[in-house]
Amino acid sequence: MASSSSYNSPCAACKFLRRKCMPGCIFAPYFPPEEPQKFANVHKIFGASNVTKLLNELLPHQREDAVNSLAYEAEARVRDPVYGCVGAISFLQRQVQRLQKELDAANADLLRFSFPDIPPAAASLSVPPGLASLHQQVSQRQFTASGFYHHRQSPTATFSFPYSLPWTDSSSEDISDGRGVGGGGHL
């Protein structure tokens, strides 16, 4: 957090607003002259006056996190004016779901190859209640260097939601497919 006045150059905020950067400038520690686009985005989305009020209301040790959050949200809003950060979060959640399905498929393959006596339908992506204990036993086994199984205790319990989450979407389309975050296409 170097003050821009020590470099005898105005901070990005004062330069953008075309004003003199005073030694006690509230923007100087957070908007260095090397990052003019950071302030330009924050100003475009939130306004310099609102950011000044916000920073003045915060304790000094909270300001850096606040500016980083504002800059992140502003950049996301510039890239996606409708959804901002929510669009990026939704995209990442769908990616996590897709990867979880791939992991489930790999675990089902592992279960099928470890226990060839189990019919293929039983080793599908969702483990039937009758095979849950068998699936848990397999997931707690691990090969040793000699190729033999040994049992390891699970350090944490797994948790699954008993209901479908509202943001889940089985498709893997991009967030710009016109359907929006909720999938309905209407706000």
TrEMBL record:
This protein's name: LOB domain-containing protein
PROSITE patterns: LOB
Pfam name, any one: LOB
Residues in LOB domain copies: 9-110
InterPro entries for the chain: LOB (IPR004883)
Annotated source species: Clitoria ternatea (Butterfly pea)
PANTHER family xrefs: LOB DOMAIN-CONTAINING PROTEIN 4-RELATED, PROTEIN LATERAL ORGAN BOUNDARIES
Similarity comment: family membership: Belongs to the LOB domain-containing protein family.
